[in-house]
Amino acid sequence: MPTTVTLPNGIQWVTLPLLAAQFLINSQHALVMKYRSKAKIGYPQMYAEKAEVEASADAYKFNCMQRAHQNTLESINLVTTCTIITALSYPILASFVCGSWVSGRMLYTRAYLTGADLGDLSVVFLKLLWSLPRLRAW
Asked: Which of 6, 71, 76, 98 is the right S-S partner for 17, CB 3.0 to 4.6 Å?
């Protein structure tokens, strides 16, 4: 007995933010490797020790980049799963939300690496989200 699976219109748009998420992870990994090499932190050491951080700005940047990458890896499975499940009913919404998450993670990574105040960044992001419904009125 054959079964037919019908996918909603717009499901193809979900691939873009999911591919962007993969690009984000690969970019973060490359930056971790770059700063690991600069700071001369060997394997299997996960983070630079406090003395290494105090002695080297590269060790500090390595720790920051490693944490940003680890934080992304901790949530990517849930984001991917929720995006795919949501896309089965609301593909455009799923694509937008996942794309927003990826954009936010890119900003977070950049801010975390440069030492910017993450509180200010979250305020800017929330103001952007607040203004989105008003854009529709145009």
From this structure: 98
Predicted pLDDT at 124: 62
Segments of the chain with pLDDT less than 70: 115-138
Cβ neighbours for 28, distance < 8 A, ≥ 6 positions apart: 65, 68, 69, 72, 109
Both tokens assigned to 33? 């490797």
Q: How far apart are CA 67 and CA 106, in angstroms?
A: 14
Prediction pTM value: 0.79
Query: In angstroms, rounded to a whole number, what is the distance separating the alpha carbons of residues 48 and 12?
Result: 42
Rounded Cα distance, 71 and 55, in Å: 25
Residue 68 has a CB neighbour count (10 Å cut-off) of 20
The owner of tokens 């954009």 is 103
Residue at token pair 């990994």: 29
| Chain mean position to CA 100 | 9
* Residue 133 pLDDT: 56
Cβ 62 vs Cβ 35: under 8 Å: yes
Using DSSP, state whether 132 is helix, strand or coil: helix
